[in-house]
Design brief:
alpha+beta, globular, 6 helices, about 250 residues
Length: about 250
């Protein structure tokens, strides 16, 4: 066999191998898609990227994918909240101007477990808050305080105003102007304790450890999280913000 023939045979064999490999990948991909899409799929919903988000489901690598889809679709957002028992009755969207207003507006009064004083906010902020409460706040309360959180205390979500800094007002608009954030000042426990950031953040007690753990955990569900260590303007609250480049301080 000549060198040219051997080369042609090698190229033919290589082409045939890669063709068969491509067919197998396509078949497996199609089979995988069919397995995920089938109504009776054995794949749990919290491992299935084609299924909608369930707030109470275990967190997996698929959860963030499902969360992002729900954040981008108001119907999915509201469905996830309703399925988890979150009290967020819909309100007509608030349209003020190009800087201020609330899209996906509602009146939040109850998360998965903890209640709140009714606060107007957006569906996306509520969904992030519910994920934080269910997967960070309540587990940390059980682990560090031996109880559950019955109430989340806030100082508001929507506020049509420019951004505030330690140097004064900024030329940009605050995320509060679109209800894309909420400020949390404290929490009540089932055994009668009231925790506040102003009083408990610096204590060498389980309460301080709890507050610091839920602050760190908020960074998994919000893109901007600011607390008492950031600056004096946040000495008494967590600023929990949906949109942003990712900042946890």
């Amino acid at each position: 066999m000549t060198q040219t023939s051997r080369r042609r045979r090698f190229l033919y064999s290589a082409a045939s191998f890669f063709f068969r490999l491509a067919v197998v990948v396509i078949l497996l991909g199609g089979g995988g898609w069919w397995l995920l899409a089938h109504p009776n799929t054995p794949v749990p919903s919290y491992w299935n990227p084609l299924r909608d988000l369930k707030i109470s489901a275990p967190v997996t690598p698929v959860t963030k994918w499902q969360l992002n889809r729900a954040l981008a679709n108001e119907a999915q957002c509201r469905a996830a909240l309703a399925e988890a028992g979150v009290q967020f009755p819909a309100m007509q969207d608030l349209i003020v101007d190009q800087n201020c207003g609330i899209s996906g507006r509602g009146l939040l009064s109850q998360l998965v477990t903890a209640r709140m004083e009714p606060v107007e906010t957006s569906c996306t902020t509520t969904l992030r808050l519910a994920m934080w409460e269910n997967h960070v706040v309540q587990p940390a309360a059980q682990d560090l305080l031996g109880t559950e959180i019955t109430r989340l205390r806030d100082i508001g979500s929507y506020n049509c105003r420019p951004m505030r800094t330690a140097q004064g007002e900024n030329s940009g608009w605050s995320s509060h102007a679109r209800a894309d954030s909420i400020d949390v000042i404290g929490l009540d426990t089932a055994d009668g304790r009231t925790l506040t950031l102003l009083a408990d953040w610096q204590r060498n007690e389980p309460e301080a450890a709890f507050l610091r753990q839920i602050w760190r955990g908020a960074c998994d569900w919000f893109r901007v999280v600011l607390g008492p260590d950031f600056n004096r303007l946040h000495a008494d609250h967590f600023h929990l913000q949906g949109p942003g480049w990712g900042y946890c301080r």
